[in-house]
Specification:
Elements lengths: L2 H12 L4 E2 L25 E3 L4 H13 L4 E4 L15 E4 L6 E5 L4 E5 L4 H10 L2 E2 L12 H6 L7 H4 L6 E7 L5 E3 L15 H4 L8 E8 L1 E2 L3 E8 L3 H11 L8 E5 L1 H8 L5 E8 L2 H15 L4 E2 L3 H9 L3 H10 L3 E10 H16 L4 E11 L3 E10 L3 H17 L24 H11 L12
Parallel strand pairs: 2-4, 3-4
Antiparallel strand pairs: 1-2, 5-6, 6-10, 7-11, 8-9, 8-10, 12-14, 12-15, 13-14, 13-17, 16-18, 17-18
Helix pairs in contact: 12-13
């Protein structure tokens, strides 16, 4: 009997009816490297699709006692190989997709980690609430995967990233114990460290997120959309920064350079898209007047319908990838965050550096997330389909990020792709020390951690 068959048989007695013998669907995610290097595809002995936290716990206990590694997988929407296994057991969380509690009075929702954002948000909307998290992977990503990669959505200026939405987490530790990161559900607590943060962005190396209690927001009553055209990208970016100093922050502010504006909207000049949302009509009137005065003569008002064009296409990443592939090229993206004083220098360096690499056909960008301290610039790269070229591009990006004190991953996480590229961004010795304390037997698949 082969090892995978033996393990599958043993797991059938641990979690009857939950074993997935055909693991082919688990060996890839949306990492573009698979288009040119299928050898990067993962391996797994067996998959398990639990329905509750007790079953997850039993699987992890079995893995720990059998000295097998465990990889937790959500919707498979990672573009960095974060959900690609390297042997062991894949725990498919998509069978755990229930809303456990919706507390309208206290504005919280507790969900199993395998529910997709696209499944959860409509349920909340029917009750007059929103989670406010709309990443490009919205249709595929699970809450647990989104937490584990510290994702953030397009409305981050209003609602923050997922780390701002988490009240507490239920996690299955590497030995199989089930704990909540806080025993009490309160808006805030200073009783010890915020243990939820140990699991947010950790990509499963400290345990499996099995459920989450999250903050809710009332749906806005009024929405204001606007578009502005600028003569140059730097002026457009500065105008976005100024908006962050106003009393009311935009829900969305996206600033496209000439290349992306031409591709997305057929406009050869930089474009700014704005979305503001309000509970009060009078506040909206005052705030939007201030926004228009702030932008002033720097930008020219464009058609607000440009925002509708973006809203219609904003989750169509797969279609864009397929379109570029059909033309004989590859597409990949990188999201680099840095301080305001370095945003434009970092942008210019990325464009210049990548454009000088033979085989890179186009580089475009847009500022996608704004903060009072800095911004994230989201670059799109189109290049010839070649594995060597792919890695040349990413190695060059890592050097640019270091030059400008930028992060190489604002919200896509680490995965296999960036594991060796971002080690200078975190104190690796501390991560290793924490891992040895939480998971001394190495049960959790940690090959993708920085």
């Amino acid at each position: 009997m082969e090892e995978s068959d033996r393990i599958a048989e043993e797991l059938q007695s641990v979690v009857p009816g939950r074993v997935v013998s055909d693991v082919k669907a688990y060996l890839r995610d949306w990492w573009p490297i698979f288009l040119v290097s299928p050898k990067e595809e993962g391996t797994a002995l067996v998959g398990v699709k639990p329905r509750n936290v007790e079953e997850v716990s039993r699987v992890v206990k079995y893995a720990a006692s059998s000295k097998l590694r465990v990889l937790c997988r959500g919707g498979g929407s990672s573009v960095t190989g974060a959900s690609v296994p390297h042997g062991g057991i894949v725990v498919d969380m998509t069978g755990m997709n229930q809303v456990l509690d919706l507390d309208e009075n206290n504005r919280t929702v507790t969900v199993q980690a395998g529910i997709k954002l696209s499944e959860l948000e409509p349920k909340l909307n029917k009750k007059g609430f929103t989670l406010g998290q709309f990443p490009q992977s919205y249709e595929l990503v699970t809450v647990g995967g989104y937490i584990s990669t510290m994702g953030t959505g397009q409305y981050s200026s209003k609602y923050g990233g997922i780390e701002d939405s988490v009240i507490r987490l239920q996690v299955v530790l590497p030995g199989g114990d089930v704990v909540w990161t806080r025993n009490r559900s309160t808006p805030r607590s200073s009783v010890g460290p915020d243990l939820s943060r140990l699991f947010i962005g950790a990509e499963g190396i400290f345990g499996i997120v099995s459920a989450a209690e999250l903050k809710l927001h009332k749906l806005p009553n009024h929405t204001w959309k606007a578009a502005y055209i600028f003569e140059d990208f730097a002026t457009a970016v500065i105008s976005g920064r100024v908006l962050m100093d106003l009393d009311v922050k935009p829900a969305v502010c996206r600033v496209y350079d000439e290349v992306e504006a031409s591709f997305q909207f057929g406009t050869p000049k930089p474009v700014m898209l704005l979305v503001y949302s309000f509970a009060s009509a009078s506040v909206m009137e005052a705030a939007t007047r201030e926004v228009m005065e702030s932008i002033g003569s720097r930008g020219k008002a464009g058609e607000p319908t440009l925002v509708d064009v973006w809203l219609e296409k904003r989750f169509a990443f797969r279609e864009q990838m397929d379109s570029i592939q059909n033309m004989g090229y590859m597409l990949d993206t990188v999201e680099m965050g840095c301080k305001w004083s370095l945003v434009f220098d970092n942008y210019s360096d990325v464009v210049t550096t990548l454009s000088a690499i033979d085989g890179v056909s186009a580089v475009g960008a847009h500022v996608s997330h704004l903060y009072e301290q800095g911004a994230c610039t989201y670059f799109t790269m189109i290049f010839k389909p070649d594995a060597g070229l792919y890695w040349d591009i990413w190695n060059a990006l890592a050097k640019v990020a270091e030059r400008h004190d930028a992060t190489l991953s604002h919200h896509h996480g680490v995965g296999i792709l960036k594991a060796g590229l971002v080690r200078k961004e975190v104190p690796h010795g501390l991560v290793r020390l924490l891992r040895s304390a939480v998971d001394p037997n190495g049960t959790m698949d940690s090959s993708r951690s920085p």
